[in-house]
Write a structure and sequence with these properties.
about 450 residues, alpha/beta, Rossmann fold, Dihydrodipicolinate Reductase, domain 2, Alpha-Beta Plaits, 3 domains, eleven-stranded mixed β-sheet, six-stranded parallel β-sheet, 17 helices, 17 strands, about 25% strand, disordered N terminus
């Protein structure tokens, strides 16, 4: 029987009005936590309309209670005991934004054991302890949401799980660390060496006093682990990822890449192959005309290749208080919508997709098949063909050979771009090349990514 749309909506309105507020307890009130509080307060009405119910921060755990009170005022209960928030009966969902992998694990598992949903921006926690955390969440039928842990303001987890749900994902590649992208941008734009660019990043607040997690590629590897698990339905394999940072990158290579029509980016790549999955973070050459090469400063970008949608790209801020808060609150909205429905209707947890996919191994470094850039110091300019012939003898396809432009204090350099070749074969060829009398110093190698369909 036909029902008037207005009449049918009226009971729904009353039902929504009767839904109680989603009560949030937050552990940590630093950069991300304070941003989350501000955005929740500022956009309260819009958030409630989109969630179908109000979302209210009711409790915060903080080390410095005086500072926390200055942020949240007297509207929120404060405690120095994070476990009190994780287990309190008046908290429906725990937001963990304190960071770290030790106590944070205990807080999250306690919250789950008490039947609470969890939202976190802690990529290290999930990369290291994710298998245990998601298993506990499945057992209790609660949600663990973590959009803010991967690409900050970019909703890439939602894109993989929902927008691209019909697709078989072939690969994911991303600039997913804002600090290193800022440093590489400065090295290219201002001709700085790595140390000078890092110092500038620290002075501007883009890099921590101890920037190791960023510049060594570990932060990007944590995020890539989560991306790969969502893209391929595989377990979290952070320990198996190949991770190389930018600390050894020289300004001369940034300049030589430009000469050849490329830019160097710290890229995380997860690619499905017949024998397994490539899972790697390293500085690579990207064609200068490619969209990914135009991602500069502290911005992030993720590109996905899937069978039906083809190439899609997602771009946004790679750091920031309210930028991360945007992702945290989006997860809270999802929790508000799904809370109370059957656990099977929750957003799927990692590693529970196709069972055959779960068996995929992470390919060893030697089996990764890509093109490469080589910079070979030589004693004389006329040795360019000798270098190319040496590589060809070792079955390395040579696509381009050039002399590097002259630079003060830098001797003659031969630049080589290869065709696709397995890393193991290239390593043997470079080892042989390094032993030649014509070679005047260490050979530098970097992978080249076309990022084509």
């Amino acid at each position: 029987m036909y029902r008037d749309p207005v009449e049918s909506l009226e009971p729904l309105h009353h039902r929504q009005a009767a839904i109680r507020t989603l009560r949030v307890g937050m552990i940590g009130i630093g950069t991300v936590g304070s941003g989350t509080f501000r955005v929740l307060a500022r956009n309260r009405a819009d958030i409630a309309a989109r969630a179908g119910r109000s979302i209210e921060l009711v409790m915060v755990a903080a080390r410095n209670l005086e500072r926390a009170a200055g942020i949240v005022g007297d509207s929120v209960a404060l405690t120095a005991d994070a476990m009190h928030v994780a287990t309190h009966p008046d908290v429906d969902v725990v937001v963990e934004v304190a960071g770290g992998t030790g106590p944070a694990r205990d807080w999250v598992l306690a919250a789950i054991a008490h039947g609470k949903h969890v939202v976190t921006a802690n990529k290290a926690l999930l990369a290291v302890h994710g298998a245990e955390i998601f298993a506990a969440a499945r057992e209790k039928g609660v949600i663990v949401a973590y959009e803010g842990a991967v690409a900050v303001s970019i909703p890439i987890i939602k894109a993989l799980r929902e927008g691209l749900a019909a697709n078989r994902i072939e690969w994911v590649a991303g600039i997913i660390n804002g600090t290193t992208n800022f440093i590489l941008s400065k090295m290219r734009d201002e001709g700085l060496d790595f140390a000078a660019a890092l110092a500038q990043a620290q002075a501007l607040g883009y890099a921590e006093a101890d920037p190791s997690f960023d510049i060594e590629g570990i932060d990007a590897a944590h995020k890539l682990t989560l991306l790969a698990a969502n893209a391929f339905g595989m377990p979290l394999r952070f320990a198996d990822a190949q991770v190389e940072g930018i600390t050894a990158l020289q300004g001369v290579d940034v300049a030589c890449a430009e000469q050849l029509g490329y830019r160097i980016k710290l890229l995380g790549v997860a690619r499905r192959q017949a024998a397994g999955v490539e899972l790697r973070v390293q500085p690579v050459l990207v064609p200068a005309a490619h969209l990914m090469a135009q991602v500069n400063g502290s911005m992030n970008a993720v590109m996905v290749k899937s069978d039906a949608a083809g190439l899609t790209m997602y771009y946004g801020a790679g750091a920031g208080s309210e930028q991360t808060a945007s992702a945290v609150i989006a997860d809270l909205v999802d929790v508000a919508r799904l809370d109370g429905v059957h656990a099977a209707q929750h957003v799927p947890h990692l590693g529970v997709h196709a069972h055959a996919t779960n068996a995929l191994a992470v390919l060893p470094r030697a089996a990764v098949h890509t093109s490469h850039y080589l910079r070979v110091p030589v004693h004389a300019l006329d040795q360019i063909q000798t270098i190319a012939a040496s590589l060809a003898e070792r079955k390395v396809p040579v696509h381009q050979v050039a002399l590097a432009a002259e630079r003060p204090g830098v001797g003659p350099q031969v630049l080589v771009l290869t065709g696709p070749v397995e890393q193991g074969a290239l390593d043997l060829a470079v080892h042989a090349l390094q032993a030649r009398a014509e070679v005047a110093g260490p050979v530098t190698t970097l992978r080249v990514e076309s990022l084509e369909g």
